[in-house]
Design brief:
Helix content is 27%, strand content 20%. By secondary structure, the protein is of the alpha/beta class. It folds into 2 domains: 251 residues, 3-Layer(aba) Sandwich (Rossmann fold), CATH 3.40.50; 140 residues, DNA methylase specificity domains (Adenine-n6-DNA-methyltransferase TaqI, Chain A, domain 2), CATH 3.90.220. It has a 9-stranded mixed sheet, sandwiched between helices. It has a 4-stranded antiparallel sheet with strand order 10-16-13-14. 44% of the residues are buried.
């Protein structure tokens, strides 16, 4: 996507080393084609792309539906006004507008009545715009304002989605690219619930990481039909690096409200299958007596008077029968531990340490053996019952355990884990 500094709305400005000033990333032709192919629309008359950028999505849409009228909108005055359409036809009618996509009065500015668009495609920017009062109106019109714990949780992804819903006609199709938050984060569960109850969410495709140049953000393709009845079941797929799609997993509404990513539900299915063969199927919630999150932030570690176990202190995986232990240098004697406990949270012998954040959190496991130790706020100490400790540790060291941890975590770039995510893992 191209960038321009001139005419940049203050509410959308965010400098970045890897994206343009609007937090946008280039949409590859592969991703564009996959999204367009997933939209079930025969002969739409009116196509729309908000935040058109380089025009990759619009071009793919125009190639498929060459008789439609196409409208693109972008705040960047240097975004292409003409599309690179292979086999261009004089039938294509394309109009481009330079305007703020998140203007409440956008429909008037571009001459489109609300509720008239047949097909909309969109790759929202990865930013959190400065709040404006008209954002609340956009969310309210789309039926989403009541789904947020706070209106200030609304990022550009949700606002772009809402603006598209305002412009779409009933039974109109929306295909968009979403970051991880709306798909997996707990704070957006009511948003997912609202979308599933008000619209038909056809499918969600989990894209490979690094599919967008300059970021490892986890992203998804989503296709929905506006006001086409409540979603009973959602089709979840995964795309590999070559653009091939996996077989679909179909999940019910309750499971989709919880999360909409393929990896999580695929891991759950595998785990459930294994549990059926196990004499003692259990969950982390049943096996754990407590989960302790460390309290020392990374910036305070150098000045803390005692060694603090942090993300870089995990050893590499060493095989199924090996045990990765917290090094002896982190162990405190009983008197020191009692004194330090006033200023920091401690892990104690028998605890299993896992990373709470980080791109490689699924590989970070260690057992506390030598004595109590101080842990950073990036670490969880899992306190298991005597009956489950060994089994739990071996599970976390296994390929299946790493898959379960990875799929339970969420986050756009660096992954993070919540206690509720942990409790839901089956082993």
């Amino acid at each position: 996507m191209t960038a321009s500094v001139s005419g940049l709305p203050r509410c959308l400005s965010r400098p970045s080393q890897t994206s343009d000033p609007w937090g946008r990333y280039y949409t590859s032709p592969l991703v564009s084609r996959s999204l367009i192919e997933g939209i079930e629309a025969r002969q739409p008359k009116l196509l729309l792309e908000l935040g058109s950028g380089s025009g990759s999505l619009s071009s793919a849409a125009a190639n498929r539906w060459q008789d439609a009228k196409l409208v693109t909108v972008d705040v960047d005055c240097r975004a292409p006004r003409r599309l690179d359409v292979s086999g261009a036809t004089p039938r294509l009618k394309h109009t481009h507008f330079v305007h703020d996509v998140l203007d409440e009065a956008l429909s008037d500015r571009i001459g489109l009545k609300l509720g008239t668009v047949d097909v909309a495609v969109c790759n929202p920017p990865y930013i959190r715009p400065r709040w404006r009062s008209d954002f609340g109106k956009i969310l309210e019109d789309a039926g989403l304002s009541g789904a947020l714990l706070s209106l200030f949780d609304a990022g550009a992804d949700l606002l772009f989605l809402a603006q598209n819903l305002r412009l779409l006609r009933n039974n109109g199709k929306l295909g968009l690219i979403l970051p991880d938050g709306l798909v997996t984060a707990e704070r957006f569960s009511r948003v997912r619930q609202t979308l599933l109850r008000q619209h038909f969410v056809q499918q969600v495709v989990q894209l490979p990481r690094r599919v967008f140049k300059g970021t490892e953000a986890q992203t998804y393709l989503a296709v929905l039909t506006k006001s086409a009845g409540e979603t009973g079941e959602v089709s979840l797929k995964q795309m590999d690096a070559d653009g091939r799609l996996s077989a679909a997993i179909h999940v019910g509404q309750d499971a989709a409200v919880k999360r909409l990513d393929y990896a999580f539900h695929a891991a759950s299915l595998v785990s459930a299958h294994r549990s059926c063969k196990s004499p003692l199927p259990t969950s982390f919630r049943q096996a754990l007596t407590d989960v302790v999150r460390g309290s020392i932030c990374s910036s305070a570690i150098p000045s803390f008077p005692k060694p603090v176990f942090h993300l870089g202190d995990f050893a590499r995986p060493m095989g199924e029968q090996a045990v990765r232990m917290v090094p002896r240098r982190f162990a405190l004697d009983a008197r020191t531990a009692q004194r330090v406990a006033h200023d920091a949270r401690l892990a104690v012998p028998g605890d299993i340490l896992v990373a709470r954040v980080g791109r490689s959190l699924a590989d970070q496991v260690a057992l506390v053996v030598h004595g109590p130790c101080v842990i950073s706020d990036c670490i969880f100490a899992l306190r298991a019952t005597d009956d489950h400790r060994e089994k739990l540790y071996r599970f976390l060291e296994s390929e299946m355990g790493r898959l379960a941890l990875g799929s339970a975590a969420h986050g756009v770039a660096a992954r993070f884990m919540s206690k509720s995510n942990l409790f839901d893992i089956q082993f």
